[in-house]
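Support case: zinc ion complex. Customer-provided input:
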Amino acid sequence: MKDLTNESIVHVKNNGIEYIQFRRLLEYKNILKHCFTLKPLDFASFDSYKEKKNKVEDSYKKICKEFRIEYSNICRPNQTHTNIVKSIEDGDEGIYNEKFDNVDGLVTNKKNKALIFCFADCTPLLFFDPVKKVISNVHSGWRGTLQTIGINAVEAMVQNYYSNPKDIICCIGPTIRKCHFEVEDDVKDLFYNKFKKELDINNYIIKSDSSNNNKYFIDTVEINKQILLKLGLKEENIIDSKICSVCNEDKIHSYRAHGENSGRNITLMELY
Ligand SMILES: [Zn+2]
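Agent response - structure generated as follows:
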């Protein structure tokens, strides 16, 4: 059986479900629950939520049981590739709570709030400040990365909860990587123009050598890492799972690999 375990993550197989956890975050497992789910769990996109209702409810039931999380504590916005990060307070719970429509990052220091986002190739950023005990769960797709949602998450932790960037751990989950994130001039130009002043952006845009067409691979993981380092996060506090969702599409739902009908993985973070 395939095992994704490496120096950063452990691949857990328990009670018929599978997920990965970051070794670094497991150091705080007495106060923090977290995971990135693997197949066969499927949490479905917003559009296929109704038609997959039974499978999705079964997936939530299993993950809640595994992590001893109350279903009523789930905070799961209708994410839409924005750069908007919002704080979760008491009463903000719910799946697709309208108050959190078009929100792609959640932050809180409250206990028993299960912050959840869905993924099929987009980049999961899991932030944790062990000093101030603050978490932020972020859905950073290529559009979110382009709009630097990671910066907004760190700023929300600093402004709302007095975190020091030097204390913040950021774990980067399985995502489409430079081996598979191939784009054409339009998307390449967006990244180039956005980051040309602040980053050595040419290091993160690799011309595809497959032919003379205008195709490029973009290293969105490294771009996220670089913008977080500039904010004051420490290199040793940025932990990369090093897992590509497309390369591992047998274990991970991937939009590139499976198209419109792709299922969804989730990231989960909860203080308790
Ligand atoms: Zn890949």
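The helical segments are 23-26, 53-67, 142-146, 149-161, 185-195, 220-230, 255-258.

Case will auto-close in a few days if no follow-up is received.
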